[in-house]
Amino acid sequence: MSESTELESRRFPVPEQLAARANVGPEVYEEASRDRLAFWARQAERLTWEQTWDQVLDWTNPPFAKWFVGGRLNVAYNCVDRHVEAGHGEQVAYHWEGEPGDRRTITYAQLKDEVCKAANALLELGVQAGDRVAVYMPMIPETVIAMLACARIGAVHMVVFGGFSADALASRLDDSGAVLVITADGGYRRGAASALKPAVDDAVSRSGAVRNVVVVKRTEQDVDWTEGRDLWWHDVVDRQSTEHTPEAFDAEHPLYIMYTSGTTAKPKGIMHTSGGYLTQVAWTHWAVFDLQPDTDVFWTAADVGWVTGHSYIVYGPLANRATSVMYEGTPETPHRGRWFEIIDRYEVSILYTAPTVIRTFMKWGEDIPAEFDLSSLRVLGSVGEPINPEAWLWYHEHIGGGRCPVMDTWWQTETGAHMITPLPGVTTLKPGSAQTPLPGISAKVVDDEGNELGDDTTGLLVLTEPWPAMLRTIWGDDDRYVDTYWSRFGREVYFAGDGAKKDADGDIWLLGRVDDVMNVSGHRISTTEVESSLVAHPTVAEAAVVGASDPTTGQGIVAFVILRGDAEQLGREDSGDDLVQQLRQHVAKDIGPIAKPRQIMVVQELPKTRSGKIMRRLLRDVAEDRELGDVTTLTDSSVMSLIKDKLPATSSSDD
Ligand code: WTA
Questions:
Q1: Residue 384 alpha carbon to ligand 1 centre in Å
Q2: H-helix or E-strand containing 332?
Q3: Which CATH code for domain 521-650?
Q4: pLDDT tens string 522-568
């Protein structure tokens, strides 16, 4: 037995104390399988509706689902006001900590006032229900306030991760037709103030629909100012009334758009709606983390710019009246114990993060967490990529003190909420496996033809029933929605794009993407997107990009480029180092620093099949320094020896 198989075969029973008083017990699976829709209706009843629904699900026109048809609710009211009305106004909603060490505590009553003020400001600026509002912010409380203010007036927020470039922002503004941008002068990352406003200025100058830019003062750095268009947040928001009467919207009213990488260069605007989304994020947050709103301190250590932040920093926790921690910066600033210090200070009891961070902590060593009191922790979570058993066990032991169950949650931007995960009071855990579809969720592993596979087999993951938090479409492109997710196995089967294995007990192990989407530090980046960025550079004739396995980030981006004739000389000089650096910077500027290739190899040719398709499999073999697989379908098998001869080629990883 290999070491990793040995680790995989370890089992962790449910802690007795937790099982005795957990929010959900084993009967919940039974209950949901008896009547799936009645189960989801009961979870929807955890929310406050102005008008209840006539029908739980309308699936008469797949894949276009409608959940809680005829129901009306206000999402922001559910996240904030109702807790204040119930007498919990003094409860802390967020313990916020800035990277430089500044702190703010925001109670539910304060959050309600701030959200009302921001909602009134948006109305004053002419934002109407259905309008799109872009949010390009650091991790500060105003980001959450802006999102809730949009939800409150029925505007559709479109948060763009602050690490994305002006180009990426411009294309998202364009595609969504946003009328307003909410941003900040900058934010703190890795010990320095990093600017956001210049990217907004650049992007907005290219996008016709944006009327105003509202700027939060965070870093106090100098900003360029466009009179008439730009407004300080403190000027427009602070003077508003703290009263605003929320209006109820249809359950299917759009709540937000979140762009994510697909297999083509153009990101997809994943659209989520209100009632079903809030039902599932609230229920999963409560059930999967066993949230006890009166005693727990919950921390999703992720950025609000990703779906994890939307569902488990903002909507799930607030709907459940959780007390959360929100942290602006990076784990190593100003020292490598920063996260543990935060857990210690706020007595965090539930921590949710990504495997890439856990592997980084492993690399830094167990002595660092050991210096802090982490005894408040009781449940841990993981998301974004498969967690290898080694990292799972390290997390369990060195962060969780051996007593905290680890919830390995599989889900996607598209699914909106957790789909496959253990439950802390129910499941005997297997390190490395997400294990079980949640109650009310139907996930299967199928072969290439869509036939369901039995236990002990490997295939493709599909979802065979609609679920409340599912995406409703790709913004402005229903056809792409159908083509991407609902055509491979028919219009009623959702193709997730992940490979999966079912073990002998029927537990599910996720195996990573089966398409051309890379997963770098839990972030999805499309190979095509990086390729088109590279070929847009004047020196590059052709480019092929692969995700090579990486011990820390899961996958690392490796690019193979063929230079244009006149640039070839450049490629040869200094072994091309300058040019490689230039290309890496170019991609970072084009898409964002997370898309910067770890390594770029300048080659003469790329391996192609007779039909002209680049054989990424072989390039991955090269990038991962493996023996080459089958080369018989290559047009010219000498290409691979040409590429291999070039190794170690011009490569680089300076950060
Ligand atoms: C991967 C993040 C294995 C998967 C919430 C999926 C996972 C993609 C897990 C979605 C997990 C996410 N185990 N793989 N627990 N969680 N993934 O849209 O490939 O950024 O398709 O959503 O991440 O990434 P996204």
A1: 4
A2: none
A3: 3.30.300.30
A4: 888 888 889 888 988 999 988 899 999 999 999 999 999 989 877 76
* Cα 404 to ligand 1 centroid, rounded to whole Å: 22
DSSP label of 564 = -
Which residue is it, tokens 């600017």? 195
Atom of ligand 1 nearest to the CA of 306: 20
What span, in angstroms and rounded, lies between the C-alpha atoms of 14 and 85? 36
Tokens describing residue 453:
């596979």
Model confidence, pTM: 0.89
Ligand 1 site, residue 524, Cβ cutoff 6 A? yes
Q: What is the DSSP string of 154-173?
A: T-EEEE--TTS-HHHHHHHH
- Residue 286 contacts residue 292 (beta carbons within 8 Å): no
Residue type, 217: K
Q: What are phi and psi of 586, to 5 degrees?
A: -60, -45
Does 219 have pLDDT greater than 70?
A: yes
Q: Which helix (H) or strand (E) holds 77?
A: none
Task: Pull the structure tokens for residue 652.
Answer: 């680089």
Q: Which residues pair with residue 246 across a beta bridge?
A: none
Distance 473 CA to ligand 1 centre (A): 19
**Spatial contact of 94 and 106, defined as CB atoms under 8 Å apart:** yes
CA 369 to ligand 1 center in whole angstroms: 26
CA 411 to ligand 1 center in whole angstroms: 5
Query: Does ligand 1 come within 6 angstroms of the Cβ of 260?
Result: yes
Q: Considering only residues 4 and 529, tell me which one the structure prediction assigns the higher pLDDT.
A: 529
- In the chain, helix, strand, coil percent, each to 5? 35, 25, 40
Of 164, 256, 306, 411, the one to substitute when testing ligand 1's pocket (max ligand atoms within 8 A of C-beta) is 411
Domain residue spans of the chain: 521-650
Q: End-to-end CA distance of the chain, in Å? A: 36
Pick the atom of ligand 1 nearest to 387's CA. Answer: 13
Task: Please name every residue paired with 540 in a beta bridge, in sequence order, or none if there are none.
Answer: 563
Residue whose CB lies within 8 A of the most ligand 1 atoms, among 410, 430, 516, for a mutation test: 410
In which residue are the tokens 């209950």 written?
A: 31
Q: What is the pLDDT of residues 519-534, one digit of tens each?
A: 998 888 888 889 888 9
The 3-state secondary structure of 116-132 reads: HHHHHHHHHCCCCCCCE
What distance in Å separates the CA atoms of residue 41 and residue 598, rounded to the nearest whole number?
A: 47
> CA 302, 305, 311: angle at the middle one, nearest 5?
65
